[in-house]
Amino acid sequence: MKRQVTLDYTLPEGALRPYFEGLREGRAMASHCVICGRVAFPARAQCCGADVEWRALSGRAQVERRTDGGGRGFALVRFEGADTRATVGITNPEASADAGELTMNTEGGAGIWLTLDRDQKGGRNV
Amino acid sequence: MVFDVAIAGGAMTPFNRRKDGSSWRDWARAAAGAALRDAGLQAADIDALVVASESDFFTLQLNPAALLADECGLTGVAAMRVEGGGASGHLAVQAGAAQVAAGLARRVMVLGVEPSASHLAGADIGALYSLSFDAWTDGMTGVDSTSLYALSALAFMERSGADLADFAAVAVRNRAHARANANAHLPLDITAEDVAASPVIAAPYRRLDCSPLSDGAAAVILSRGADAPGRARLRAVASAADRVRLGERADAGVFAGKARAAQRAYAMAGIGAEEIGVAEVYDSYSGAQLQGLEALGFAPDVVAAERAGEFAAAGRLPVNLSGGLLGQGAPVGATGVAQVLTVAQQLEGRYGGQRPARPARFGLVDTHGGIATLNAVSILEAP
Ligand SMILES: [Zn+2]
């Protein structure tokens, strides 16, 4: 037998809404723990058992590990000012720079996308 | 309290991509019936059923525990479903063992099943698997399981000195082991050159470094030792969760949650890693097997031990003689159940495939969901 299921979810973002709103505007909103000082990006709703404060990062990130295949690229990066790393999709996998900038997700999803610098000398393409 | 749980019997179907029109319900019934026969029991002897299945999206069946109890002639039993991503089957065994140990049930059937190959397109399965990580961060970037494992493997390679040849050796050896296993999905006669020539999925991983999507089912029956003479004993059941986001781990290449689960298992069994004589380790990817062996504490330098042949069939600690996920296959809910069954049969000296050069007294089973995010480790002892 054949069955086809189409599911159209609405996912409320709850305490992480400032983080996701930032992503939709191309801004890196990190969580900041007032107790231990940890800055997390992607953000966390809580740290040290308490609610976090919000802090805007520059959106620049340094690539630490990168994998490519099938024309797509993903990387483990650290955003400037963050104590944690993030897993990102690379919008321009043909580029080889080891730094880039957060890019607005045009598809409306929640993923983190990074556009790599056009060359190692710091020229940007955004 | 003495932890007194035995593997009274078990069975599995072949793991492969079904092309015969059979359904996941058929495989589950077949595994359950064969497990009862192996244990010398009737359906009426079973008083609890624990079902393992990773996702209702695969089967398009919610509440599968009740359905399978009914399908397998176990009407009236206590029933539940256990889920923990890739570790689902193994966690179901641990949940069943807890019921026996607590005296809540005398005989528990653990039944794992998954149609990971034939019921959905591979791309759809991949999209569902990507939700095994933090769906709100990784999953929605479209990052797939192979890419996340690749990022972790790159960190492991840099720290440990493991190289592509080490990964290929695992990919080749597990497929070679699978050739002695009649239930294996990929019993391949391949070389390191074949691995290097297979298409890149997410560098450094190529097609032959990845475990396949498989269909299949496996079942074991758990009881107290006195009810299962001559059968292997479960000496330890342990699990531990790690940070879900790869980027929040101190070292993206370390399977720290697995190391924690292993330490708990060794403490519960009262033995050290050096006493393990056979192991089934979660090799969802070739490099992940080495990362897993490191976390399980099997060698101070796991890469040197791998190169010295310590994990080969003739080595000090034979690993994945079944072929592992890479060779035997990976129908998710059934995977961990089959791993436990394999190690039990190895310790009982009745395993049908490749056996260790020296009979083992203790065997270890290691399974995880996510990227070693939810880890299950159990230790079994020969009867
Ligand atoms: Zn904090």
TrEMBL record, chain A:
<protein>
    <recommendedName>
        <fullName>DUF35 domain-containing protein</fullName>
    </recommendedName>
</protein>
<dbReference type="InterPro" id="IPR012340">
    <property type="entry name" value="NA-bd_OB-fold"/>
</dbReference>
TrEMBL record, chain B:
<dbReference type="InterPro" id="IPR002155">
    <property type="entry name" value="Thiolase"/>
</dbReference>
<feature type="domain" description="Thiolase C-terminal">
    <location>
        <begin position="240"/>
        <end position="381"/>
    </location>
</feature>
<feature type="domain" description="Thiolase N-terminal">
    <location>
        <begin position="5"/>
        <end position="223"/>
    </location>
</feature>
<protein>
    <submittedName>
        <fullName>Thiolase family protein</fullName>
    </submittedName>
</protein>
<dbReference type="InterPro" id="IPR055140">
    <property type="entry name" value="Thiolase_C_2"/>
</dbReference>
<dbReference type="Pfam" id="PF22691">
    <property type="entry name" value="Thiolase_C_1"/>
</dbReference>
<dbReference type="InterPro" id="IPR016039">
    <property type="entry name" value="Thiolase-like"/>
</dbReference>
<dbReference type="InterPro" id="IPR020616">
    <property type="entry name" value="Thiolase_N"/>
</dbReference>
<dbReference type="Pfam" id="PF00108">
    <property type="entry name" value="Thiolase_N"/>
</dbReference>
<dbReference type="GO" id="GO:0003988">
    <property type="term" value="F:acetyl-CoA C-acyltransferase activity"/>
</dbReference>
